Every structure is written in structure tokens, then in C-alpha cells.
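Per reviewer request, we include the raw input and output of the structure prediction for the construct analysed in the revised manuscript.
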Amino acid sequence: MPDWGVELVMIIIAASVLTLLAVLTMMFLTWLERKVVGRIQDRLGPNRVGPFGLMQPMADMVKMFIKEDITPRDASRWVYNLGPILVVPPAILAFAVIPFGRGLIGADLNIGWLYLAAVASTEVIGVFMAGWGSRNKYALLGAMRAAAQIVSYEIPQVLSVVGVLLLAGSLSMQKIVEAQNVWFVLLQPVGFIIFLIASVAELARSPFDLPEAESEIIAGYHTEYSGLKFGMFMLSEYISTFAVSAIAATMFLGGWRGPILPGWLWFFIKTYVMVFVIMWMRGTLPRIRVDQLMNFAWKILVPLALANLLLAGLIAYALKPGETPGILMFIGFLVGNLFLVAGAAALLVWRAPKAEEPKVAIVSPEGVLAGQ
């Protein structure tokens, strides 16, 4: 077989394995989320199908396959059918540059983070096509909400990561992990919190699940989908959740680096800790309003991310990452982040609307007797 044929076969095998792992991950995460949220709500969660309910995701998948596939009469068929197809590949392609361990990486690109940002931004196309092609007012409104939300929160998400890139001196995900003699979450705690909040908003998960708010717009851009097409949206959501958690573990928690245990095991431990945090947010936080969602992005997260980036640049320029001992880097960033948080808190208090004192009407006894 020629060399190009061998490469083609290897690419097909790698893509097939990646897709299979993505499906298995989605099935496990659906079971895990039901269990976690069930415990938060004082329920047992899935416990009938298989031991501990482990076969419940398989039963759900069978149900998705045998459900009737309905296309609305007035829908734009090409656009309607392409929507769920286009939302899945970006979630799977993200894993190509994420290092699962030392040397366990699909492609160690020197522009790894730039690749991730570009791939993630294409998902909004499939979401908007789903809402537009359905010819349903609720679906279109949900798609417009999703597009506005993704575009708004992408900005603070990217800005929060630039501080990490300054410290690592590279866009390569593998080199970012290797640069973390001190976890970047300790040097960039504000950036980590911004990244986590912006990522949850991009996933449209609670408390940012306005694109599919059941009490307002039925199911958003999912409204007209059923069966396998609806299942593809669920596949994209859960794979994206795992991908975001893996990126957070790689960028801020040291990735596969850790003592005693194998690197790949450390990677999955850190990733599933992040997955649990996202699920915990869903089970505990109420949904916010649309105006609060956009104000929070543009008036709080974006300015805070810019200030954090400026701080990271100044400290990195002064302390020279890679040359300064880790403890000095930690102290420098700790002091800087304390000033940043204090300044942000003072600004929020200063901008908070002042409560007006209630006006008390004073009526004289003569006025009461006169019937006033």
C-alpha cells in the first residue's frame, strides 16, 4: 500500500475511535448528571435499568433511534436537516489538540488554542440554522438568543486565556501543560473564574440556559426536532461539556501533570472535577434574565477580563516566567489579583443604584378632622 494510503487508513481509524469515545462519553455523562442532580434534589436518579441505572443511557439511545422523525411542513428542509449535523463536528474536533497524557495527543499544533477558538466559534452556525430552518417562532427566538449569547461570552473567554498564553509563551496545548510548574489557576484565579463562567454560558447550561428556557420558549431551537436529530443536539451538548472541562484542566489545572499516578489518570480526574462543578451549577443556581445575561457579559466580564490581561502582562514582563522561582511568581500574581478583585468590588459598589428613602407623609390633626 502506498504511503498516502497508509496515512488515509490511519486517519480513518483515528476518526472512528474518536467518534466512538465521544459517544461513550456522552452516554456516561448523561447518567452521571442525572445521578448528581438527583442527589442535589434529594432523589436517587436512574436506578431501574441495569445496576445503578448504568444502562439508562443505552435505553435512551434506543428510544431516540425508534422515535418517528418528523419534519415540519413549512420548514426549509436543507437548512433544517443540516442544523443538527453541523453542531456535532466542532465538539469532537476539539479533542484533536487536547493532550490526554505525555505524548497522548492527536496533533500537537503550535497554534493549538487558536485552533480550539476557531472550531468552537463554528457551532453557532448549526444552532442558528436549526432555529431558522424550523420556521417556528420559538425556535427562531431560541436560536437568536443562543447566537447573541455565544458571541458575547466568547470575548471574555478568549481574553481570560490570553493571560495563560503569556505565562506559557506558546499556543501549543502540550507546551502549556509543560510550563505549569505552578498551576496557572494559582497565578490566574480571576482568569480561571472568568473562563469557567463564560464557558458555561457558551454551553447554554444553567444558569445561562435561556436559549432553551422551557417556561418561555418551549425548547428553543430544539422545539421542532425529534428522534435522532434531537439526539445529535444532546450529543453535541455533552461532548462540548466534556471538552470545555478538559480545556480548563489543561489550561489552568496542569493537565496530565501530577505525582505518583499516571498522567492520563490525572487528566481525567481533573476533567471530571470540572464536569462535576458544571453539573453542580445546574442543580443549584436559578436561571437569570436576558438583560442580566448580556449586562453581565459586557459590563462586568469583558472589563474584568481586560484588566486581568493587563495585570498578567505587567507581572509577566516584570517577573519573566521561566526565570523567576515559582513561589515569587505566585506571590506576585496573588498580590496583583487581590488588588484586581478589590478594585472590581469597589467599582461595583460605587455603581450600585442607591436605595431611595421612603417618603413619609405627615398629616396634622386638623387635616384628619377636616377629612383630608
